[in-house]
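User: Study the shape:
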Amino acid sequence: MTLSDFIANDPSSPFRDPVAGETAYIAPATMRAFAQAVSDAVLRASAMLTLDYSFNGSTTPQTANGQLRLDTDDQTAATRLWLSSVTGDGVDTGELLLRYDAGSTLRADDRNDATRWQRYAVIGEPTLVNPQTVEFPVVWQAGGAELATQALVVVLVPST
């Protein structure tokens, strides 16, 4: 993928040969589409995203900053997983989280106890359920002991 590919497909972006001294104009919409495509390609090529969260045992989507919640007390039966769009260390990841679609994997590891972890497959498109919470439709894949209500490392692996 190159910028030239986007320009060639966008008749609103007259592009002249800058080597021959002609000016170049690229429509803003074309630049946005190119930037989005590059961003998506980088996300897909990345190995994983690791974020700081804490587990909250509440089964409602009203997350506070830095929280992960599930829709059930049985961590192996969860069908929805909620992540705050702001991590435990204050990073706003809302837009980035929405790009982890069906086929992605989400793993939650207890920060202090390696035996406590759960891994979920994302089975649909994530959605923003309120200004600070991203909902993932999930199915449980594997796990160790149940997560405790304490610090977690959340690892997201994008679909390929």
Notes: Residues 49-157 form one domain. The chain is about 20% helix and 30% strand. The CA atoms of residues 1 and 38 lie 8 Å apart. The longest strand covers residues 133-143.
